[in-house]
Design a protein that fits this description.
Mean pLDDT: 95
Number of helices: 14
Catalytic activity: 7-aminomethyl-7-carbaguanine + guanosine(34) in tRNA = 7-aminomethyl-7-carbaguanosine(34) in tRNA + guanine
CATH architecture of the largest domain: Alpha-Beta Barrel
Low-confidence stretches: none
CATH class of the largest domain: Alpha Beta
Strand order of the largest sheet: 4-5-6-10-11-12-13-14
EC number: 2.4.2.29
Number of domains: 2
Family: Belongs to the queuine tRNA-ribosyltransferase family.
Radius of gyration: 20 Å
Cofactor: Zn(2+)
Largest sheet: 8 strands, parallel, barrel
Strand content: 15-25%
Organism: Parablautia intestinalis
Length: 376
C-alpha cells in the first residue's frame, strides 16, 4: 500500500494507496473535527485548494450527531459529500484534553460529554466500532496521550496500557472488516507510538508495535508542552525503529517550520488546527512570514494577502477588504483567511514533494525557512 518513490537522507517521497484514492506523501491533512473545516469551508472548497485527506474526530462525531446515525446515512464520505481519503482519530487525544471529564481504567475511559454531561464509555473496541460506523479510510488506534512532561513511572504504565489497547484494536478491526454490514471493509489501521519525552521508552514502544503488521504508524503525544528541540529529538530517535515500508504520521504538528523539520526526519503525514484556527483570527501564513490583518497598517493595503498566491482569497480580494470583513465580524472574512492558510499548507506540501522528486529538498527547506523569517 505504501510505495517509496524517492529518498533524500531520511526525507521520503511516497504514494499510499487506499480504497478512496492514492495519497501523495508527504501530506498535510486538513482538520475537519466535526466533518467540516471551521470557517464555513465546503467540500467543494477543499477540492479547489487541493486537499488530499480530510481528518475528522471520532469522539466529537460520536457525541454529535452520533456515529450510528452517520452509518445509517451511508458513512462519513457520503454524509459530508467527500470522495477522497478521510482519517479519523480514535478519541485518544480527548483522554488528554478532557482530563477533567474522564477516568482511565484498563477496560477503557469513562467520559462526561463536554456538551451535555452525559456519561460515555470508550475503550479500544468501542473506538474501532465507532470508526467502522463512520467508515473512514484510515482509523487510528485508541491510546492514552500522556502529558509530555509527565513522570517517568506514569508514562511507562500508560505506554504499556496503550500497547495492550492496540492489540485489542487490531483484533476488533479485523472482526469489523469481516462483517457483512460494514461499509468500508478495507478500513486501514494506524498504531500510535507514545512515551512522552523519554527516548528509551519511545524506542522500546516503537519496537513493540512495529511487529504488529499495521497499515501505518503514528507518533503521538508531541507538541503538547515540550520544546521544539525536544520534539525533534524524539522524532529522530523514534522513526528509525518504525517500519520503513509503512507511512509515519506525526500527530497534531504543526507550524510550517515544524513540518519541514518533520519531513527531514522521515515523517509522511501531518495534521494541525493551526491554519484554520489562526485564519479565523486574521493570522495568515505567507512565504515572507506570518501577518496579522488586524494590524492598522493593512487598512489601506490593496494588495492580496500574498502576491502570486492562487487561493480563492488572493485571486480576488485585497488585504484591506478582508481586514474590513474581520473587523465587522463578517463570516466571509474568516472563510477567506482559512482558505488562504489551508491553500498555503497544501501548496507547501506540493512544493516539498516536487523538491524531493528533484533531489533538492535540503535546498528547498533552507530557502523556505529563510523566506518565512522576514515578516511584512
Amino acid at each position: 500500500m505504501f510505495r517509496l518513490l524517492k529518498q533524500e537522507g531520511r526525507a521520503k517521497r511516497g504514494e499510499f494507496t487506499t480504497v478512496h484514492g492514492i495519497i501523495q506523501t508527504p501530506v498535510f491533512m486538513n482538520v475537519g473535527t466535526v466533518a467540516a473545516i471551521k470557517g464555513a469551508v465546503s467540500t467543494e472548497d477543499l477540492e479547489r485548494i487541493h486537499t488530499q485527506v480530510e481528518l475528522s474526530n471520532t469522539y466529537h462525531l460520536h457525541v454529535r450527531p452520533g456515529d450510528k446515525i452517520i452509518k445509517q446515512l451511508g458513512g462519513l464520505h457520503k454524509f459530508m459529500s467527500w470522495d477522497r481519503p478521510i482519517l479519523t482519530d480514535s478519541g485518544g487525544f480527548q483522554v488528554f484534553s478532557l482530563a477533567g471529564l474522564r477516568r482511565i481504567k484498563e477496560e477503557g475511559v469513562y467520559f462526561h460529554s463536554h456538551i451535555d454531561g452525559r456519561k460515555i464509555f470508550m475503550g479500544p473496541e468501542e473506538s474501532m466500532q465507532i470508526q467502522s460506523n463512520l467508515a473512514s479510510t484510515i482509523a487510528m488506534a485508541f491510546d492514552e496521550c500522556p502529558p509530555s512532561l509527565a513522570e517517568r513511572s506514569y508514562v511507562q504504565a500508560s505506554v504499556a496500557r496503550t500497547s495492550r489497547w492496540l492489540e485489542r484494536c487490531k483484533k476488533e478491526m479485523d472482526r469489523l472488516n469481516s462483517l457483512e454490514d460494514t461499509i468500508n471493509k478495507k478500513q486501514l489501521l494506524f498504531g500510535i507510538n507514545q512515551g512522552a519525552v523519554y527516548a528509551d521508552i519511545r524506542i522500546e514502544h516503537a519496537k513493540q508495535i512495529a511487529g504488529l503488521g499495521l497499515d501505518g504508524y503514528a507518533i503521538g503525544g508531541l507538541a503538547v508542552g515540550e520544546s521544539h528541540e525536544e520534539m525533534y529529538h524524539i522524532i529522530e530517535e523514534t522513526v528509525p525503529f518504525l517500519p520503513e515500508d509503512k507511512p509515519v504520521y506525526l500527530m497534531g504538528v504543526g507550524t510550517p517550520a515544524n513540518i519541514l523539520e518533520g519531513v527531514e526526519r522521515g515523517i509522511d503525514f501531518f495534521d494541525c488546527v493551526y491554519p484554520s484556527r489562526n485564519g479565523r483570527h486574521g493570522h495568515l501564513y505567507t512565504n515572507h512570514g506570518k501577518i496579522n490583518l488586524f494590524n492598522a497598517k493593512y487598512e489601506m493595503d490593496d494588495r492580496p494577502i500574498e502576491e502570486g498566491c492562487g487561493c480563492p482569497a488572493c485571486r480576488r480580494y485585497s488585504r484591506a477588504y478582508i481586514r474590513h470583513l474581520l473587523k465587522a465580524k463578517e463570516m466571509l472574512g474568516m472563510r477567506l483567511c482559512v482558505l488562504h492558510n489551508l491553500y498555503f499548507y497544501n501548496t507547501m506540501m506540493e512544493e516539498i514533494r516536487d523538491a524531493l522528486d528533484a533531489g533538492e529538498f535540503a535546498a528547498y527547506k533552507q530557502r523556505k525557512l529563510a523566506g518565512m523569517i522576514s515578516s511584512r
